[in-house]
Amino acid sequence: MKAIFINGSPRKNWNTAQLLDSAMQGAADAGFEVERVNLFDYEFTGCKSCFACKIKNSKTNGVCAIRDSIRPVIEKCQEADVIVIGSPVYFGYPTGSVRSLVERLLFPLDTYLFDEQGNRMKVPHKTVQTALIYTMNCPEELSHKVGYDTLLGFTGTEMGRLYGYNEILCSYETLQFKDYSRYDMNLFSEEQRKERHETQFPVDLQNAYDLGKRLAQKAVEANA
Ligand SMILES: Cc1cc2nc3c(=O)[nH]c(=O)nc-3n(C[C@H](O)[C@H](O)[C@H](O)COP(=O)(O)O)c2cc1C
Q: Which residues contact ligand 1 via a Cβ below 6 A?
């Protein structure tokens, strides 16, 4: 079985990437074929409103019709049993690249149809265990106060609706720079961030590992 881990940070080895790698290890230890993709290696846009996926008798079958550089990643997601997308929080939202990918992944799976019972229909697709991993400067308490649960949760809700399952893991007050003294900045304490990186980030990495393993195990159970 396959699991794909998508890094939506432009930084390939920082907080988001490290958490994804940890989740990936968890899935690998559960026997999955795993792969990490760096979204910033691809030049692509979000949905272009072509509606090829909504036209009557559409042949797109849940896959975005646009044939650009991100298409192979979308096809890999179509085959995957586990999809984990990691994103830094940029101005209260996932990064633009993650937003673009999510549009391209989710819109073709969605429909504008109600079934006879009045339930919103979706394009038939196997259940995929999905998760979002968010990293941010914001402290946890403040993130709840300023509405990040809603802002960041909506993507998770939609992934859960269309793929069948989603959970969200957040890593707060991440280390942003190796050397804070090089930057114009007095908003954060370098000492506090380094201390947190030493004490809390390893816990976050473990949580990400457990997440990867748990999703893989759920995928096996779902297919049994
Ligand atoms: C353009 C930009 C916007 C950001 N906006 C926010 C924000 O709104 N809230 C927040 O908590 N952190 C914000 N951050 C901080 C990042 O989310 C945080 O440093 C994250 O852990 C970076 O992930 P990375 O280390 O994987 O690149 C922002 C960073 C950048 C570069």
A: 9, 11, 14-17, 88-92, 135-138, 174, 176
Mapped onto helix, strand or coil, the DSSP state of residue 87 is: strand
Q: What is the dihedral of CA 156, 175, 23, 63, to 10 degrees?
A: 40
Asked if residue 28 has pLDDT above 90, the reply is: yes
pLDDT in tens, 159-216: 999 999 999 999 999 999 999 999 999 999 999 999 999 999 999 999 999 999 999 9
What superfamily would CATH give domain 2-223? Flavodoxin domain (3.40.50.360)
Of ligand 1's atoms, which has the minimum distance to the CA of residue 176?
19
CB 122 within 8 A of CB 111: yes
Beta bridge partners of 129: 82, 165
State which of 11, 12, 90 you would mutate to test the pocket of ligand 1, scoring each by most atoms of that ligand within 8 A of its C-beta: 90
**Distance, CA of 211 to CA of 217 (rounded, Å):** 10
Q: How many A from CA of 4 to the centre of ligand 1?
A: 23
Which 8-state DSSP code applies to residue 49? -
pTM of the model: 0.98
Residue 129's contacts (CB-CB under 8 Å, 6 or more residues apart) are: 81, 82, 83, 163, 164, 165, 215, 216, 218, 219, 222
